[in-house]
Specification:
With 145 residues, the protein is of the alpha+beta class. The model has no long low-confidence stretch (mean pLDDT 86).
Amino acid sequence: MTESDRINQIWRQNRIPVLWRMGKGISPRLRLPYREDNRAWIQNGRRTNIRWDRNEKYWEIPQSWFNDLVERCVEEFDKVYIIQPFREQEKCAPACWNATGYECQCSCMGENHGAGGGSGRWTVISDTFATRWGQETIACRLLSK
């Protein structure tokens, strides 16, 4: 099973709430186990109206409600899945790229050791620290009480 299949399976299950933060400018989506009072529970006395997508069966919520709903889902349902964009950060350094010998002590695990240059995708902070970001993917985690 691929990671994408696993995330789709989590999104489609109906036992544990799922909050999916899509990225900037896109409203987060929420799936809850069915209850008659879901709309009122989500709104929690707030005036802002939320949108129910009848075909895909999720609620669109304001971004500003995200953290509150994570906490309330854990309190009410004991667990919540959070699906969100993720970019892995790599750390290395010019000291590694320009090194001689075989001992490497940075997070590249020797991949860039002695290779010279850093291939332009790195942001060099100092001789002992450079960073770059990988491609954006989707990550999923389960929070529990």
